[in-house]
Structure formats: C-alpha cells, structure tokens
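Section 3.1: Structural characterization of target chains.
Under the original work plan, the team committed to producing a structural model for every single-chain target entering the pipeline before any wet-lab resources were allocated. The record below documents one such target. The sequence was received from the expression subgroup and is listed exactly as submitted; it comprises 250 residues.
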Amino acid sequence: MLRVLVADDEVPAREELAYLLREDPRVASVRTAGSGAEVLKLLETVPVDALFLDIKMPGLDGMDVARLVARFRVPPLLVFVTAYEEHAVEAFELEALDYLRKPVRRERLAEAVRRLVVAREGGEPGADAPTRTDPDESIPVELGGVTRFVARRDVLYVEAQGDYARLHTRDGSHLVRVPLTTLEERWAGAGFVRIHRSHLVSLAHVDEVRVDEGRCTVHLGDTELVVSRRHTRELRDTLVRRARPGNDRA
C-alpha cells in the first residue's frame, strides 16, 4: 500500500489526480500540496512513499524538489506529471520511475502505480541493497529535437562515452546524458552486467560467451564485445548462478 503526495499548483489538476489515485486499491493515502515548498514541509512530518510532481510550479518547481529529496536518506519514489514533453530526459536522469503527460488517463496512471509497487517490492526506496528496477522501464532519448522512448528490454548493450552512455538496440543507437556507472547500478536487477570499463551488456541478449586462449568475448547477434580480465570471473560466476536449477531467469 502506497502513501502518496501529489504536488501541483493548479487546483483542478491536483484534485483530479488525487481523486484517481484514491480510487486505486494499491494506494493507502493521498496528500496534496500546491507548491514545492509545501512538499518539503510535509515531508518533514508525513511518511511518503511516492511523489507525483508537476514540473512547472512557481518558486521551487518539480525538478528542484526532486533534486532536494534525492539527498534524503530514504528518498520517496518519483513520478513527474506535466503537459510538457521536453523534460523527459532530465526526469530519467533524476531516476523518476515514470513520466505522465497531462491530461492523465486512468489506465496510464494505473501503470505508473504498478511501477511504484514493483519498485517498493524490491526494497525500501533509497535503500543500499536493492536497485530500483521495472521490467517495462522506458528511456527517453532525444533525436532531432524530438523525444522518443526506448524500452530497456530492447537494449542489447550500453557503451560509455565520457559522462554519457550510448544505448545499442537492434535498430540503432541512442546517446543519453547518464554515466555508465549510474546505469550499471540502476539496471543490475534487470540482468545487465559490466564486462568492461566501457561496456554493460544485457544477459538476456547474449547468444554466446567464448573463451579462446584466455581471451573472453560475448556475442550479441553480429556484435562481439571483449570481456576484460577483471570482469571475466564475475561474468562466469553470474552465468553459473543464473543457470542453477530453480532459477527462473536461466
């Protein structure tokens, strides 16, 4: 059961979203706030599992609030609700679990709540052990001024490019403003493993692992990636664990 806080400076939008959330049996309580400052004040006294944040608010906007709560010892999960598409990439960088466009449809809101529940089942928000994971997570990418969404399940491997990362799919590649180390931590529970300082691969898409004269490589379709000596044993141990009887991910 989720304890939710909805923040929006527009009363009709705030009340409509709160109403829809209260109808969801997975939501235990819904509080509302009309500004970023009010959100921070409520968080001092009220336990909250998830924030539904409007982005455009006077004073502290939704992005400002998200950056501040990220410093909490146990930060609440984040869902952004906005009429604007251009903030999707920044929302992903702040580890938002979802990004809803106004007007919010009941079915789309139910999916956002499902994602929150999945994240909660993985552990307390902000806890050190589990990583927030969602099998249907979508990654916003910018292409020619247009924001598209790439499903994580379609990502074959990720390549480090400085402070950025390039997502490789069967249809092409996409540059995102997220370091490879961040994706490594966030996607560990979704079957992504580090094989090199420059590469993170999805085990679900690995066709073969070859060892030839001490040189280890993984094959994803026509792509061959070298596994560094440092990560070879880790990869082998991970594959052994996944292949054990009773492991449904094998």
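DSSP finds seven helices and 15 strands in the chain.
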